[in-house]
Amino acid sequence: MNPVNTKPYQLPADATWFITGCSSGIGRALATHVAAQPGHRLIATARNPASLSYLPDDNPAILKLALDVTSPAAVDAAFQAAAAHFGESYYIDVLVNNAGYPLSGDSEAVTEAEMHDEFETNFFGTVRVALKAIAVMRQSPTRRGGLIFNVSSVAGVCAFPGHAFYHASKFAVEGWTESVAREVHPDWNINFCIVEPGAVKTNFETTSKKHIKPHEAYAAPDLPARQLEVFVKKGLEAGVGVQPEQVAQVLYQVAARGEKVPLWLPLSGTAIMLITAKLQGRLQELETNKELSAIDKDQAQFKLN
Description:
The protein is α/β, with parallel strands linked by helices and 305 residues long. It has one domain: 3-Layer(aba) Sandwich (Rossmann fold), CATH 3.40.50.720. It is 41% helix and 13% strand. The protein has helices at residues 25-35, 72-86, 112-138, 164-183, 224-238, 244-256, 269-288, 290-293, and strands at residues 16-19, 41-46, 62-66, 94-97, 103-104, 146-151, 190-197, 210-211, 264-267. The strands form 2 sheets. It has a 7-stranded parallel sheet with strand order 3-2-1-4-6-7-9, with helices on both faces. The chain has a two-stranded parallel ribbon with strand order 5-8.
């Protein structure tokens, strides 16, 4: 496969950041961090712009916008507003696709509309915003390039019961990001990073999450989804998770350190442990079943350079 992120990324001193989902959690923490950096410019977005009141109104380097990522027209309008606000100096150096929400519920209990809504925000919303940013970055006459963070989750690698459509949306984000990272021309200098946080101390498991009532066939307390709910509740009560400010600091560090950008970035020891176990399990299963799987072993093999 062709390599990605082949050159060290150099964050410009006057970098412009475009961040979605800035009303709370990781988005708010990162917007606050970027706003405090001298010379940087910030485009902070949220469904409800009133939730961005923590950012100043009188700083021309900060633009606060309403953005519903499920609306193509709203995405177009946000980028047009940013271009109008910053004028000839308009550019997007760093995009952070952070808007999203979790949907929990037994697969048989989730409606078609709820499935589609989850994908519209978490996957298609991410794609819409990323494609607009890519278009800005690739048209730079100076090959200024850029960096796109697509916030996935450990749930984009490891799947647990009771969250099938949330997992599916994050798996889709991961697959799409890896593919588009291999589509862009190396000379455009566009870097991609799939962010895979573990538990973060936000409203993710409370007001942000959409809970679907358990399906009657899955209501027994000994079923895996119900056991996971108990486990998650205990974790919340125990204060498990990293602070959103820690995530924000690492994302800024990745952008500013002048090194190659990792395509995948698990965040937290728990995320590393879970992803490692998942990959080791896949490798073990590949080894166990390789004789069964290699149905073309007697045929000519096509080798990828």
